[in-house]
Amino acid sequence: MLRIRACALAAPTGIRRALLLYLKGKWGGLLPTDDGPICAAAERLISLMYQHWASEIADIADAVLHDQACIAAMLKVSSSGFPKSMDCGLSDPHLGGRTVHILRYADGLLVLKPRSVTQEDLVRRILMRVGNRLDIQLPSVAAMSINGRGYCEYVPHCDYLEPELSFFFNAGATLLVCELLGMTDCHPRNVHMSPVGPVIVDCETVFHPTFDTSMVMWDQPADGPLRSELLHTLAPMVADERHLDALKRGYATLWTALGTDGAFRASILEDIHSFAGQSTRVVYRATRFYLRIIHRLRECAAAGREIDEMQLAKILSRRFRATDYCHPACMLIAAEAAALARLDVPRFEMVCDERSIRERGVVLAREAVAQSGLDDSLARLSALPQRSLAQTLEIVGLYVEFARLRNRANSLG
User: Fold this and answer.
1) Residue 395 vs residues 152, 225, 276, 308, 391: alpha-carbon distances, Å
2) C-alpha distances in angstroms, 84 versus 81, 149, 168, 238?
3) Under a CB-based contact definition with an 8 Å cutoff, are residues 305 and 288 in contact?
4) DSSP secondary structure letters along 345-394
5) CA-to-CA distance for 141 and 229, rounded, in angstroms?
């Protein structure tokens, strides 16, 4: 607490205002609209949110005070000093309410993430290698990890972009990279658009595995160009056949290079193997499913009703046929319930060349996936020559057309 108070006294007004607004947002829906009493269920969550907030402020203060050399290197300045202001709570809360923040320095903006960003660094290396081979510029995020947290360069989102054909060519190559690396979470919040192509600003699902069928009772992302969700993100921007042809050409050009250039292919394999022993995020259920539960928990607490971990575990296990405590998903469901009870989106990890799912380093389920995410990625690359490029490009075209029709139907109401 002393560290929090000292940092708060030294912080500029913009920082203090941002942190107070962040706390107010965490309390959203739990405080009564009038001056009436706060019920016990809401009071417990208000107290818990305050503890999360105070602990996170201590982490931010630690980062700002002790990572200045790293921050200065990212900003390309000799000394970083103290940020002038910040934007708080830019991601879903994990592991005690931790979220992503933007630090606004006089010399530029930095994204502070409460995790290592080795995944972003790997994707950047591979995109740069692909760009050099194809003689194109594939945009990526510069990243640096230190003391268990990560710093990424800030990439602005071009909302009113009028992309040229080179944008879609680059997007097609990026689409195949994301597919081969097994990414599953390239939705619009995790992809910013730049004039030269899409920028994946969150790469934490790289080498995402496929769960063993005993672990899930819902559909999983299938291999192919739809896996990463990047095509879903890009589809609304594809305005005509020229854009679609450029997208397909970028995808096909990288596909052909991987099949015909042995040295290039070997360098990509080396990059993939270099991630052995590193951790990656595992998305057990869709985040929107967890967020609906958290919203409902807030509503119940504000109304004076509390849903405990046991009740949450029963809700989460409804879709499983087996209900005994020996079910392989039992520990995962218990961890989900514990996270949701503290209004966190559950966050699981696995070492990308292993098959066990962990939370904060503790193994929750062994052999939970058919094979490791890294082995999945190597298998995709090996199987590329046996797959039909023509059929894959047809899938890309059909999906884009489907997206167009859906958007047209939505616009008509």
Assistant:
1) 34, 8, 32, 45, 6
2) 9, 21, 37, 39
3) no
4) PP-EEEETTS--EEETTEEEETT-BSS-HHHHHHHHHHHGGGS-HHHHHH
5) 19
Average pLDDT, the chain: 91
CB atoms within 10 A of CB 284: 23
pLDDT tens digit sequence for 289-309: 999 999 999 999 999 999 999
Q: What was the pLDDT predicted at 374?
A: 97
Contact call for residues 341 and 311 (beta carbons, < 8 A):
no
- Of 124, 128, 119, which Cα lies nearest the Cα of 264? 128
- At residue 215, does pLDDT exceed 90? no
d(CA 49, CA 342): 8
Hey, what long-range contacts does 17-25 have (CB within 8 A, 24 or more apart)? 17/85, 18/85, 18/86, 18/87, 18/88, 19/53, 19/57, 19/86, 19/88, 21/88, 22/53, 22/88, 22/89, 23/49, 23/50, 23/53, 25/88, 25/89
How many angstroms separate the CA atoms of 345 and 297, rounded? 12
